[in-house]
Design a protein that fits this description.
Length: 368
C-alpha cells in the first residue's frame, strides 16, 4: 500500500503472545499485513513472524499522569521513531485522542471492539464527534456503530465485523458423531452468565443420561489468572450441578473442544458488542445457544437458539430441547458453519486494506 509501515496500537491490557492473547490480540494477529508493526505492553515471547515493539511507559516522575497517559506517551515515542504512514488504535478512544493531539496531520484509524459509551477509556459525545472528524472510526458490528453515533446524527462510522480464519480451524466432527458435551468457553465472570450456565446445566443434566457439561475459562486470559471471589463461590455450585470447571486453556484447545462438542452456550448478560465466541462455535460446527443481547442477535441470525440467561428456566429449557433433538442440532450445525463462512479473514483483510487506503488518502470509505 505504501513504503512506510502501519502501526497497530493495542490496548494496554492486551498481551500479544500465544497463550496470553485476548480477543483483540487474536484478531490483530489474524489481520496483520506484511510490514505492519504491532505495539503493545511488553510480553516475553510475542507472536512469531510479526514485527512487535513493546511500549515502554514513560516514568511517572517524567510524565505525572495516569497509567494510560504514560502508555500513550510511550506509544508516541514509537510513532516518532517509526514515522508510520498510518496509526491504527484498537478500542481505546482516550488513547486515540491523546495521539491525535500529538500528531495532528498523521492519518489514524480507531477500531472499536466494545461499547464506546461504557468501555474502559470511554469519552464524551463531544469527544466522539471530534474523533470522527479527525480520523476514520471503524466498529466491529452495527450495534457498536449505533452506540458510537448515538446523539451524533452526522457522524459516519464504518463497520468491519470481526473475523475468523476458517482454514486454520480443527476439522469439525459431523453432528451425529459429536460428543454429548454442553460447553461454555470464555471469561468466568457474572457478565458472561456463567452462574446461569451452571444453574441451567444443573437443572437439565439429571434428565440427559450420557451428557456432560464443561466450562473452559478463568477470570482473565492466561494461565496466571487469579482466583476471584466469584470463582470461589461458583466452584461448589458447579460441583453440585455436575459441571466440570476446566480452567484456562489455550485458544487452540478451546477450538478443538468446540469442534467436538454437540452444544456450545454463550449465555452473556453483558451486551456483547460482537460475540467472537459465538462465531467460533458456529465455525466449529457446534449447535449454538446464545443470548439475544448486543451484537449477538445479528451475528447468529437463524443459526442459533436465542435464550437470555435470566430467568434460568428459559436457558435450561433451550439447552434441554436441543440436547434431546439430534435433528435440530444437525440443522443448527449446518447453518452455523454456513454463516461463519461469511466472516472469514480473507474477506476481512481485503476490507481492512480498503479502509486503510481510504484513511491514508484522507477520504471517507466508499462503503460505510
Amino acid at each position: 500500500m505504501h513504503s512506510a509501515p502501519v502501526l497497530t496500537v493495542l490496548p494496554p491490557r492486551e498481551r500479544f503472545a500465544p497463550g496470553q492473547a485476548g480477543a483483540i490480540s487474536l484478531l490483530v494477529h489474524r489481520l496483520v499485513a506484511p510490514g505492519d508493526i504491532v505495539v503493545g505492553s511488553p510480553v516475553e515471547r510475542p507472536f512469531a513472524g510479526v514485527a512487535f515493539q513493546a511500549v515502554q511507559r514513560v516514568p511517572w516522575i517524567i510524565w505525572p499522569r495516569s497509567m494510560v497517559g504514560r502508555y500513550s506517551a510511550g506509544v508516541a515515542r514509537i510513532v516518532r521513531q517509526v514515522r508510520p504512514a498510518l496509526v491504527e488504535i484498537h478500542n481505546r478512544p482516550d488513547i486515540a485522542l491523546s495521539l491525535a493531539g500529538c500528531f495532528p496531520d498523521l492519518p489514524m484509524i480507531l477500531t472499536l471492539h466494545n461499547d464506546p459509551c461504557g468501555m474502559r477509556g470511554a469519552v464524551s459525545p463531544a469527544q466522539r464527534a471530534a474523533l470522527a472528524r479527525r480520523m476514520q472510526v471503524i466498529a466491529v458490528s452495527d450495534w457498536v456503530r449505533q452506540r458510537f453515533a448515538e446523539g451524533l446524527p452526522d457522524v459516519a462510522v464504518a463497520v468491519m465485523p470481526n473475523c475468523i480464519d476458517i482454514a486454520s480451524l480443527p476439522p469439525p466432527l459431523p453432528a451425529a458423531a459429536r460428543e454429548r458435551t454442553i460447553l461454555f468457553a470464555g471469561r468466568v465472570v457474572a457478565d458472561k452468565g456463567t452462574d446461569a450456565f451452571v444453574a441451567a446445566c444443573g437443572a437439565v443434566l439429571p434428565h440427559l443420561p450420557g451428557w456432560r457439561a464443561c466450562m473452559i475459562g478463568a477470570d482473565r486470559f492466561g494461565a496466571d489468572s487469579p482466583e476471584t471471589p466469584f470463582l470461589r463461590a461458583l466452584r461448589p455450585a458447579a460441583q453440585a450441578a455436575g459441571v466440570e470447571m476446566a480452567g484456562y486453556r489455550p485458544h487452540e484447545q478451546v477450538l478443538e473442544e468446540m469442534a467436538r462438542a454437540a452444544i456450545v452456550v454463550v449465555p452473556s448478560r453483558w451486551a456483547e458488542p460482537f460475540g467472537l465466541t459465538a462465531l467460533e462455535a458456529m465455525a466449529c460446527g457446534a449447535a449454538l445457544v446464545a443470548s439475544p443481547v448486543g451484537g449477538l442477535r445479528d451475528l447468529v441470525g437463524d443459526a442459533a437458539i436465542l435464550a437470555p440467561p435470566d430467568p434460568v428456566a428459559g436457558l435450561a429449557a433451550a439447552i434441554g430441547d436441543l440436547a434431546t433433538s439430534p435433528e435440530r442440532r444437525a440443522v443448527l450445525s449446518a447453518r452455523g458453519r454456513a454463516r461463519a463462512a461469511l466472516f472469514d479473514c480473507v474477506a476481512a483483510r481485503e476490507r481492512l486494506g480498503a479502509l486503510r487506503r481510504a484513511a491514508v488518502a484522507g477520504r471517507p470509505p466508499d462503503d460505510l
